[in-house]
Amino acid sequence: MLSKPENGWTVFSLGDFQAEVSYLVDIPFDWLISCKNALKHNIPLSFFLELEGETCLLTSYGYDTHIIINRRDGGYQLKTVRNVNFMDVSDMLLKDIRLYFDDWVTWYDFEQTEADFARRRAALKALIEETETYLDACAKRYNKQF
User: Fold this and answer.
1) What is the distance between the alpha carbons of residues 104 and 18, in angstroms, rounded to a whole number?
2) Residue 111: pLDDT above 70?
3) pTM for the full predicted model
């Protein structure tokens, strides 16, 4: 779902949708917090993608995930990814952030010092663990395995 972050950018891919997203959204924290809240409260998952001139909202619940693209011309486009729900999105995000954990710790340009990185590393590790706990509980409720 997410490529290795480099210089404040990563590639987001889901279904046939692919886009470069920027550091203007602190992806690992903002998106994981959204996942955690959706899993904890059994509510739709939603997060924001900054595409350099265009924006997107991803929302997921039930059976499908929807990506709403706010185009530069003011129009909107809807992409639907069938059979991918909020638990699936959460699982993919967790796996990708774990895979490139150190890169996600240091990708955010506003975190400059080693003390900042240490704080961010600890906070991200805790958020991953908390989100995984809620994903496990939600998956059990729905008899879903990851």
Assistant:
1) 19
2) no
3) 0.94
